[in-house]
Design a protein that fits this description.
This is Sugar 3,4-ketoisomerase QdtA cupin domain-containing protein. By secondary structure, this protein is an all-beta fold. It is built from no helices and eleven strands. It has one domain: Jelly Rolls, CATH 2.60.120.
Length: about 150
């Protein structure tokens, strides 16, 4: 995966995904099947609340400007073999596609590609890796899930 490939969402998998808990900590581990095509500048763990699993609750419904050059890499974390998230993204103006993410699924989102998620399972998480720190002026709202 290189950053000069066609600007489209790219899906993949992590090699291993596991969570261990003891009285002192919770540990989540995964290994990527490929190196990220950027130096990591920011990591976020997104843990939707129970409210987020209600019908119509949408998050990450935006895109990043071309000038920002912000790439985002998402990893779905949660219970195995059940749908965790729906992701919708634009492939060209006014044309969107949709995919379901399971535990270990990944997607790389380049700048200017609108994307949004709906959480399907309480306890599911998205881990977001980006090449840049968050800057609100680079993020533009979108409405990918408003017209179901």
């Amino acid at each position: 995966m290189t950053l000069n490939e066609k600007d489209d969402i790219k899906f993949g998998k992590v090699f291993f995904l596991g969570t261990r808990t003891n009285e002192n900590q919770m540990e989540t581990s995964f290994a990527l099947d490929t190196s990220l095509p950027f130096k990591i500048g920011e990591i976020h763990r997104i843990s939707p609340s129970e409210k987020a699993v209600m019908p119509g609750f949408i998050f990450e419904n935006h895109y990043h400007t071309r000038d920002s050059d912000r790439y985002e890499f998402f990893v779905a974390v949660g219970e195995c073999k059940i749908p965790l998230f729906r992701v919708r993204y634009c492939v060209r103006p006014f044309v969107s596609k949709e995919s379901v993410m399971y535990a270990g699924d990944t997607c790389l989102v380049p700048p200017e590609l609108s994307h949004a998620f709906i959480c399907l399972k309480i306890g599911a998480e998205l881990w977001r890796f980006s090449n840049l720190h968050y800057f609100c002026e680079h993020q533009k709202p979108q409405s990918l899930f408003l017209q179901d």
